[in-house]
Specification:
Elements (H helix, E strand, L loop, with lengths): L3 E6 L2 E6 L9 H14 L1 E4 L6 H8 L27 E2 L15 H6 L18 E8 L7 E5 H6 L3 H7 L3 E4 L1 H7 L7 H6 L3 E4 L1 E3 L6 E3 L5 E4 L4 H15 L5 E4 L6 E5 L3 E5 L9 E6 L6 E2 L2
Parallel strand pairs: 2-3
Antiparallel strand pairs: 1-2, 3-13, 4-15, 5-13, 5-15, 6-12, 6-14, 7-8, 7-11, 9-10, 9-16
Length: 292
């Protein structure tokens, strides 16, 4: 059976079949998956019981792993549960036990439930993210994706002209302030210094423009902070209309792959008393290409 992709949400999100990503891929399958990513921006693979090593190997077909020289979390190295190359998006501590809801790391991770684009707080935001569902809770825990290409296309002419040349500042400080997490050390504040990105960017392969929004975006250069945040909130509401969103209901063995250059996403609530073990690999990106 050859690789095929079934649309899940029109021109946004596709379901891949006919390929075993636990095994090495040939060049034709890699090219087909890359073409699928350019077309759909989100791809879903079912029944892929990956090890961490297999997930990393699959990810490396599409680029280099993101370097974490710029911190993106508050979890200390000695508290990590997983090995290099795999980001832990579970609710488990380093001993494999469910985190206390009073845990500082748990509070920080709640920010993932805001609409965001991975690593937008870095000078070179992420390319692809790949999330593997190992243990899934019985209720909730969907991941939602918003089509930022469609969001740009749906702007009225006046707003499209207004956003064309705007530059935003992105920082983890902004997204965590939104949920009331302000308990950052001086070292963390320095590590999360804002970076600047265009509000409209052009995909380096397809050339399609998209809105570059994220909960990490908390300021617009040349605007007052209140005006900027209200405008960014309005744009986020526009970009996350139901017709622009695909919601993935996880099953064990699912792997979901998305292009951060064309999407936003967010995690949804689940019963914190149940295990949610999902693991992410992330590909390094390049600085965004401005343009409309």
């Amino acid at each position: 059976m050859s690789l095929s992709i079934r649309p899940l949400r029109g021109a946004f999100a596709g379901e891949v079949s006919g390929v075993d990503i636990t095994a090495p891929l040939d060049g034709a399958d890699v090219a087909a998956i890359e073409a699928g990513m350019d077309a759909y921006a989100v791809l879903v693979f079912h029944d892929q019981r990956l090890t961490d090593e297999q997930q990393i190997a699959f990810t490396l077909n599409f680029g280099e792993l993101e370097s974490y020289k710029t911190p993106g979390h508050i979890r200390k190295g000695e508290d990590q549960r997983l090995g290099p190359g795999i980001a832990d998006f579970s609710n488990l501590d380093r001993h494999g036990q469910i985190m206390s809801v009073e845990d500082r790391v748990w509070f920080f991770k709640l920010g993932d439930r805001l609409w965001h684009s991975d690593s937008s707080f870095r000078p070179a935001p992420a390319k692809y993210s790949l999330l593997s569902g190992r243990v899934i809770p019985s209720w909730g825990a969907n991941t939602e994706f918003a089509d930022m290409r469609g969001a740009y296309d749906a702007l009225d002419a006046r707003t499209r002209a207004e956003v064309a040349s705007l530059i935003c500042e992105h920082s983890l400080i902004y997204s965590r302030e939104t949920i009331g997490f302000v308990d950052l050390t001086a070292e963390e504040i320095a590590a999360f210094a804002p970076v600047r990105h265009p509000l409209v960017r052009r995909h380096p392969v397809t050339g399609r423009p998209s809105l570059f929004l994220s909960a990490h975006a908390g300021a617009i250069v040349g605007w007052t902070v209140p005006e900027a945040r209200i405008f960014l909130r309005d744009l986020t509401e526009h970009a996350t209309q139901r017709e622009l969103v695909y919601s993935h209901a996880w099953k064990p063995g699912d792997l979901v792959m998305w292009d951060n250059r064309a999407t936003m996403h967010r995690a949804r609530r689940f019963d914190y008393r149940e295990v949610r073990d999902v693991r992410r690999t992330t590909l390094a990106g390049t600085p965004p290409i401005p343009g409309t």
